[in-house]
Specification:
about 60 residues; alpha+beta; 1 helix
């Protein structure tokens, strides 16, 4: 088994509230591989008018 550490960037739309954020993140990360662990390391406000935020997530995947 090979482990890889990746920085992943994900948009957090306004329509996803905090209560559902974990499920939203996991659903998007599982598309990249077998998820071992993840953590949000940065949140930035977007400059667009839709109010989305940009999440920087540190991910460890097993391939």
């Amino acid at each position: 088994m090979k482990l890889s550490s990746v920085d992943f960037y994900l948009d957090w739309p306004v329509s996803i509230n905090l209560k559902h954020l974990r499920g939203y993140i996991i659903a998007n990360l599982e598309k990249k591989g077998d998820l071992i662990r993840w953590s949000i390391v940065d949140i930035q406000n977007s400059i667009d008018s839709f109010g989305t935020k940009k999440l920087k997530i540190k991910v460890v995947l097993a391939n």
